Amino acid sequence: METLNSPGIPAQQTPDTTPIERFVWDLTYACPLRCLHCLSESGRRPSSMLHRDDALKVADVIISAKPKRLSIGGGEPLLAPWWEKATRRLTAAGVPTTIFTSGWLMNEAIARRLSSSVTGVAVSVDGAGDEVHDLIRGRAGSFQKSMASLEHLNRKKQELRERGESCYRLGVEYTVTRSGWEGKERFVEEISTRFPEVDYITFGAVIPEGLAQEEKFASRELLSDEQLVELSESEADLASYARSHAHVSVTDARLFLPTSPLSVEGETIAHIEASGQLRAVTNYEAKVGSVLEEPLDVLWARALDWRNDPFVSQQRNSIRSLDDWARVTRLLDRRYGSAADKLRIARRSDAA
Ligand code: SF4
Q1: What is the pLDDT of residue 8?
Q2: Residue nearest to atom 6 of ligand 1 (CA)
Q3: For residue 219, with 0-12 CB atoms within 10 Å meaning exposed, 13-18 middle and 19 or more buried, which class applies?
Q4: Domains of the chain (ranges plus CATH)?
Q5: Which residues contact 65 (CB under 8 A, 6 or more apart)?
């Protein structure tokens, strides 16, 4: 694997070098699926979901920071009873808001509610067919649910387009594992044929966070160095299989390595957990306090201090490959996670 030599993360991060540009907000850790690679271990931990009034306060904190965009996930965000109230408030305030869903809960009514409350909907699909997707997602029937979800979302978007009304950008996000390596070309062809309203299909290698950092998963499912290169070079070929206007892209995981010149973009993400705690960095369990209890600028300065810590910085700058990244995630999560995180991680390791 080619390595990227010029350090991407500023040596010392300050609010000037590293302003908040984007938020990730986990609405809940409840989830009907049990994905092997889940970054948040959702469905296997307390939901930590806020009550509506506190959730709306979090939305206000995000609005006040004027981010360029917001990604809403979890867990399954559609399980939060107040998701629509929160997303309406955010989009009305001009925050471009994309909701990430497995599609398990989707129906016509939810597609309609989404069409007037968010700017983007991304459905995760991790295999070209039932066998692989259901294996990775840990629940039989999940591939068919994701296809049914795309049916609803596609139909609603088509209806609104024909009436000249605006609607969400509709995307499909494919997380590439070794199991899900084959069939990507067929997948592009089928999705773009069956759901012509899909605006984009994105492929990205599974990254070693959450459950995907664990050795058993990492050794079986993280892409090899050669596959990472091959995937990053396959964009034009995959795009040639599109049968609609869908934009097909490949996210090069190497660009997220801390030594990549482009990794600074990831540093500008403020990641709010379901309880309202702000993560020090989106990739790791370390937290710096709750946005419901302290001003965001105070928490952000604390997050940057955590990143500037010599030990943390040395570890992160030692990453040159996905395997390195998995090793560093295991180390940092076990050292800096909360007491509850450490207990959860220890149980996870026992089971692995
Ligand atoms: S659907 Fe998403 S949140 Fe739920 S278990 Fe899978 S990866 Fe985790």
Answers
A1: 57
A2: 35
A3: exposed
A4: 22-351 (3.20.20.70)
A5: 20, 23, 270, 296
* Residue 29 CA, closest ligand 1 atom number: 3
Q: What is the mean pLDDT of each run of 10 residues along the chain (352 residues)?
A: 44 89 98 96 96 98 98 97 98 98 98 98 97 96 98 98 97 97 98 98 94 94 92 96 98 74 81 98 96 98 96 91 92 96 86 48
For tokens 């910085």, what's the residue?
A: 313
Residue whose pair of structure tokens reads 């990641």 in the numeric block: 271
pLDDT, residue 3, reads 32
Ligand 1 center–CA 36 separation, angstroms? 9
Question: 3-class secondary structure for 7-32?
Answer: CCCCCCCCCCCCCCCEEEEECCCCCC
Q: Indicate whether residue 102 lines ligand 1 (CB < 6 A).
A: yes
Which tokens sit at 234? 């396959």
Describe the strand order of the beta sheet including 287-290 as a list of residue ranges.
247-251, 200-205, 169-176, 120-124, 97-101, 69-73, 22-26, 269-272, 277-279, 287-290
Residue 99, helix vs strand vs coil: strand
How much is the pLDDT for 252? 81
Contact at 8 Å (CB) between 89 and 56?
yes
Question: Which structure tokens are listed for 278?
Answer: 């702000």
Tokens 């810590």, located at residue: 309
CB 344 within 8 A of CB 45: yes
* Helix (H), strand (E) at residue 76: none
Query: Are 33 and 149 contacting, i.e. CB atoms less than 8 angstroms apart?
Result: no
Whether residue 253 has its Cβ less than 6 Å from ligand 1: no
CA 331–ligand 1 middle distance (angstroms):
23
Among protein residues, the one whose CA lies closest to atom 7 of ligand 1: 38
Looking at residue 6, what is its pLDDT? Answer: 39
